[in-house]
Amino acid sequence: MGESDSLKxxxxxxxxxxxxxLLQQRARAASCAFLLQIGDQSFHGDLVDGALTxxxxxxxxxxxxxxxxxxxxxxxxxxxxxxxxxxxxxxxxTKAKRFVLEGDLTPFMRHLLFFKELFALPRALETxx
Amino acid sequence: MSALEPILGRYLGVxxxxxxxxxxxxxxxxxxxxxxxxxxxxxxxxxxHLMCDERITSRYRVIAFDMPLHGKSTPPDGFEQxxxxxxxxxxxxxxxxxxxxxxxxxxxxxxxxxxxRIVLHLAITHGHAFRAMIGxxxxxxxxxxxxxxxxxxxxVHGGEVCAGIVSGLMSPQSPSARRHETLWxxxxxxxxVFKGDLFFYRQSAGLAxxxxxxxxxxCPLFLMSGDYDFSxxxxxxxxxxxxxxxxxLVAMQGMGHFPMSENPDLFATYLLPLLERIETQ
Lengths: 129, 281
Fold this sequence. Notes:
The structure holds two protein chains of two kinds. In chain A, strands 3-2-1-4-5 form a five-stranded mixed β-sheet. Chain A is 39% helix and 24% strand. Chain A has a single domain (3-124), classed as SCP2 sterol-binding domain (Nonspecific Lipid-transfer Protein, Chain A, 2-Layer Sandwich), CATH 3.30.1050. By secondary structure, chain A is an alpha+beta fold. Chain A is globular. Chain A contains six helices and five strands, in the order H-H-E-E-E-E-H-H-E-H-H. In chain B, 35% of the residues lie in helices and 19% in strands. Chain B is globular. Classes of the chains: A alpha+beta, B alpha/beta. The A-B interface holds A 82-83, 85-86, 88-92, 94-96, 105-106, 109-110, 112-113, 116 and B 143, 145-146, 150, 155-157, 160-161, 163-165, 167-169, 171-173, 227-228, 230.
């Protein structure tokens, strides 16, 4: 698995969200702008009315409310269908300093269970035909 | 289809800090009393699987109670005037009151997370009063990994954020239904209760000096650790076990912070041999 695989997983996230009716319903209450970083590549995420748009970054002067950054290898482990201990949860990785959460965490914490599910969606790709 | 479970629930009236408390407890089985202490921000339901396991209830009287303000234990009059904070003294007094009220004679005690941390304290100060002790996810010191202020704010749903905080402490290998049931009790916890329980967890991190004095000859002590528990890590538990002469560490694989509720079948494979030893000691 390389960085390009990681990027494919991120790019699949909007469609994975759109195909999950219940999660999309919860997304409608969680509108916000965030930054996701996988290794050297960043993405601006916009959640509006339950739909996610991802734009490769950095887009100069684009604002975001919170950022979630991690090294590419940690994301790869995180997205395995059965992640090893320590790579199975966003907070496990922030505690281990492999991931960093920054900015205004209020929207993230208000919809914590939703965002945990959203960022774990690419795990489903492993089991897709 | 219908099926009655063997679990019986009742209320026990006790006085704590000069106030009347109505403590809810459940029990099942006959034999050696086994007092089970739930995690912070949760309640006795975590032990429902143990109470329905005949391999255990045929030999043990399994008892669990909801801490004040938790589960079905009625909050004491005037609770709304206080900022709830669980202290070491209050926790010990509650356990003593329940043991006395239920006339438990030298029970075995098992606790998880804050319930395990208090087990360590009881091992230091009350070892004579217990037959054996099992502490799960209860290292004397752990590294704090989040700001507990998030747990009780008017603009963040307390139930959802508490569940979101602990959701990743479970193993992805644990059955989805059991993991979500575990989270459900966190979602139902009263406002600020989990945060108040963690006051004890962080206050009691100073137990480190006392644990070397634990006499495991008098009261055997087993410590259980899940490999997916990143809050109370395997390293934290190993350090604690090695500081207590005679303490035994049980390293559980594919398990997180809530063994008895997140994966009761797997937990039983680790617990049953310990209960067998406690019974025959």
